[in-house]
Amino acid sequence: MSFEFGPAHVRRIAPYQAGRPISEVAREFGLDEANIVKLASNENPLGMPESSRRAIEAALADLGRYPDSNGFELKAAIAAKYDVPMDWITLGNGSNDILELAAHALVAPGESIVYSQYSFAVYPLATQGVGARGIEVPSLNYGHDIPAMGRAIEADTKLVFIANPNNPTGTFVPAAELEAFLAQVPPQVVVVLDEAYNEYLAAELQYDSIAWVRRYPNLLVSRTMSKAYGLAGLRVGFAIAQPQLTDLLNRVRQPFNVNSLAQAAAIAALNDREFLERSAQINAAGYRQLTAGFDALGLEYVPSYGNFVLVKVGADDGAGSRVNLALLKQGIIVRPVNGYGLPQWLRISIGLPEENAAFLTALKQALAA
Ligand SMILES: *Cc1c(COP(=O)(O)O)cnc(C)c1O
Questions:
Q1: Where in the sequence is N6-(pyridoxal phosphate)lysine found (predicted)?
Q2: Residue having the nearest C-alpha atom to atom 11 of ligand 1
Q3: Where are the domains of the chain?
Q4: E strands within 98-224?
Q5: What confidence tens digit (pLDDT) does each residue in 58-89 have?
Q6: 26 with 33: CB under 8 angstroms?
Q7: pTM greater than 0.90 (yes/no)
Q8: Nearest CA owner, ligand 1 atom 14
Q9: Which helix (H) or strand (E) holds 364?
Q10: Of the residues 120, 173, 258, which should be mutated to test ligand 1's pocket, given the most ligand atoms within 8 Å of the CB?
């Protein structure tokens, strides 16, 4: 073939590697789906809230119609919860959509986007997707080096992505450090503060990023219903920013990007405080369980503020793949992070107590193999 389809910036994109579905692993390794434990995609091990299930059942009758393009009721629920006007909210098909919308709305081809090494894979993907130039700032202790990110901003930088807590490493940037960063970022550079794991933060670490949105017209806070709210399969996320940014994001948004069932389920989940509390409790207990297991096995891990832990499973660059395969054979799905440049590590989503226990038993075997 003497030509190639598509522009160079698209051909250069390495596809996102998702956690492997249970059905696929069952087929490949000849296992029973019922015995497989998936701790690979930072999903809520409780599944979806019962309140969302009921809301979905009630919404089924209207599926012949298009969803509400403006998501009035969901935005009203978000506006009430965070005490912001409705025109400060953008709805996304997952918060992944929000990240893409921000890149599309705010960055032209050839301009630059700043993000950290070992941060969320979607940041470089969104950057490449719009033909922008990624400026990857070396990580500090597996987390964001916020002062270095400030220094990395160039004249053509339009966007900075920060995940707090970070995925896949689980690190956390304290509020004071973020606040200092926001105060010194040039006002024409938009900061996307991706708080996908915010609901898991202990009370003493919680901070009021919405107050910062009121102060900084160049700040966009991104939230998801996929993690603590247990709705990953429905795809709902949202952004809170001042109207100038919200308006731009909505111009590039697909009119019906959040489906009717997702909108109904999200409203129910947002108001389900009991479910959220239970999720955080199970997560905290699971974190103690997993890290005690790692300590017993003498494994290094990165202290995590999310619903997952990054653990070092060997000293050679084949370790992650090797231990991952040994776990898969035992019906345990976790996430290799070679694609992030962390080939000696695996990322383990925190599961139910029995799932964590099954994983630790299998891990011990895998390390001995
Ligand atoms: C999981 C995750 C998201 C996106 O999740 P959605 O399901 O698309 O809402 C965004 N940012 C980070 C850091 C994540 O880990």
A1: 227
A2: 196
A3: 18-47+274-368, 50-271
A4: 112-116, 133-137, 157-163, 190-194, 219-224
A5: 999 999 999 999 999 999 999 999 999 999 99
A6: yes
A7: yes
A8: 196
A9: helix 353-368
A10: 120
